[in-house]
Amino acid sequence: ALKNMVKSKIDNMLQNKIIRESHSPFSAAIVMVNKKDGEMRMCIDFRQLNKITIKDRYPLPRIDDTVDALCGSKYFSTLDLFSGYWQIEIEER
C-alpha cells in the first residue's frame, strides 16, 4: 500500500512538472510521514545534499521595520504558494 502511495505521488509530481525523470547516479531517500489528518506526506531526506550546499544567508527584515515601511500604503496583497517547498528552482549544471 505504501509503495503504491509513493508511486502515485511521484506520478502526480511528474505530471505537474514538479520533478522530471533523471538518470543521475545520485539520489535522496523518500520518507513518508503521517500528517495530523491521517494522510501521508512524502518528504525527501536531503541531509547529505545539505552538507555540501553553499548557504545563501541574508538577514530577514525585522517586523517593526516592515510595518513602518507599509505605513501610509493603500493597497496590499498576499501570496500563498501551493506546496511552497517545491517552488525553489535549482540551477542545472
UniProtKB/TrEMBL annotation:
Regions annotated as coiled coil: none
Family annotation (Gene3D superfamilies): HIV Type 1 Reverse Transcriptase, subunit A, domain 1
InterPro entries: DNA/RNA_pol_sf, RNA-dir_DNA_polymerase, RT_dom
CDD domains tied to this protein: RT_LTR
Limits of the Reverse transcriptase domain: 33-92
Entry-linked Pfam families: RVT_1
Biological processes annotated in GO: DNA biosynthetic process
Protein name from the UniProt record: Reverse transcriptase domain-containing protein
Species per Swiss-Prot/TrEMBL record: Daphnia magna
